[in-house]
């Protein structure tokens, strides 16, 4: 069983920064992928980024095109942080973290989401 809890959302002015955290409880998987997604009102869910750990200490990170160069994922395996810099009004959305076992697969586990609002 995997449990994910997000925190850190809020209101920020354009150009500012926020850091979201996702606390991960994943006792089942020897390797796991944790992803960040967002969904704005009236829009489809969008991939933000993900981090994958293999069975050792190696990890891999990649990002969606709209956030590359502005957002960074870092983790100590227990917590996955999404550092968001140079925020834009179009980054306004509910942000979710999600997880699945292994490097590929569907995201079976989701957090409750946290609201990020960027004012212009």
Q: Indicate the proportion of strand residues.
A: over 45%
* Helix proportion: under 10%
Summed up, the helix count is 0
- The outline comes out as globular
User: How many DSSP E strands?
Assistant: 11
Characterization of the model:
The chain is mostly beta strands and 120 residues long. Helix content is 0%, strand content 57%. The chain is built from no helices and eleven strands. The strands form two sheets. Strands 2, 4, 5, 6, 9, 10 and 11 form a seven-stranded mixed beta sheet that branches. The chain is globular. It starts with a strand and ends with a strand.
List keywords for this structure.
120 residues, 4-stranded antiparallel β-sheet, 57% strand, 7-stranded mixed β-sheet
Please outline what is shown here.
The protein has strands at 2-7, 10-13, 18-26, 32-39, 46-53, 59-63, 71-75, 79-84, 93-101, 109-110, 114-119. It is mostly beta strands and 120 residues long.
Blueprint (SSEs and pairs):
Blueprint: E1 2-7, E2 10-13, E3 18-26, E4 32-39, E5 46-53, E6 59-63, E7 71-75, E8 79-84, E9 93-101, E10 109-110, E11 114-119
Parallel strand pairs: 2-11
Antiparallel strand pairs: 1-3, 3-8, 4-5, 4-9, 5-6, 7-8, 9-10, 9-11
